[in-house]
Amino acid sequence: MGSDDGRGRSVPRGRLSRLGAFGRMAGGVAGGVMAEGVRRLADGQRPRISDLLLTPANVGRVADQLSHLRGAAMKLGQMISMDAGDVLPPELTAILARLRDRAQHMPPQQLQRVLAAEWGKDWRTRFARFDATPVAAASIGQVHRATLPDGRVLAIKVQYPGVAESIDSDVDNVATLLRVSGLLPAGLDLKPLLAEAKAQLHEEADYAREGEQLTRFGTLLADDPRFVVPALHADLTTDRVLAMDFVAGVPIETLATAPQSTRDGVMATLIDLVLHELFVFGWMQTDPNFANYRYQPDSGRIVLLDFGATRPIADATAAAYRALLRAGLDGDRDAVRDAAVAAGFLGPAAVERHRALVDRMIDVILHELGQAGPFDFGDRAFVGVLREEATAMAADRATWHVPPVALLFAQRKISGTALLAARLKARVDVRTMAEDQLGGSAP
Length: 443
Description:
5-stranded antiparallel beta sheet, 4-stranded mixed beta sheet, globular
């Protein structure tokens, strides 16, 4: 969750008020396009419409309105902005990336109404202290620190009003913005992705369900001393309020200045968790937001937070990753390509029209994977090479392809974990970890 900066702004909860906010955003962007277009024409330029849409002023308008709406509109932007398959153009991803830390909390009066509706008007009698200012605010809810009469300290996540009811219309409105932006090919079918995004957002807005997933992972990791999962307080949890132990820890990003051995150990632990989620647990927390991890310097343990995006891993998904990993570890380019197409990571049209380019990209990956010893996530040179190779294929919109949704959500977690490893410049022997996991799980 993004840190709060002291701003309180009421959340629009009615369908018409939220639609009006989208209308004002579209009007502001249109006005910005006209003004910028006139200015550039006066300078003798012949600007493209995409250049006019993506000015800093328009980026700010979109980000501000979506952060005001919060809910599915903001969450969908955050989801898209993560490096999870490059489904959208980098220009649009850059706009949506600005939403990650722009959450604004509810004003006290709105918070009071929400808690009275969930717990009753005398809800304050349940606590010795309830801090009205949230310790964190994000797209769907905000977190408050509270103390029970017996001294136990809790973290209380309170959902913004109207969020659950507005999910479908918010997603549809964001999809409309994507279409009219002109940045997406007309033939690209986003319907399966949007339908799944709605389904997942409805699940994330169900705090009773998140409480169940919190308990599930607490059980799965109960005997693993490397992790801390907060305990659920079911008596205070409802569909719109989630109560759990308050667990102290520092932001995971602060480890960027920690000793190399500490960074390496933390990332090895998190990568091991991903492998277990994928191949052992059959359940994965698919939101890789850095704020969902905290670190306890005294114990070296990692605190896991926010299980709203937890979803089951289908056998077919695990099998697809197993086949892809096995081919990669074997250094078999043809097998990697075939596995990527069979799983749906690559569309057949991309391979047919850009076979040599695809093979060059696979070769780059196999070269990195084939090196002995720890993989240096801080060395991102190969990423630039891959991006450069992919430019030609990305320009060929006829080959654009949306992978199966189940793969996208799993890959979002995998990519997000790799991004965190890059941020921490960690060195991890991923090859050995993958071989150990596949050796123990192969059919």
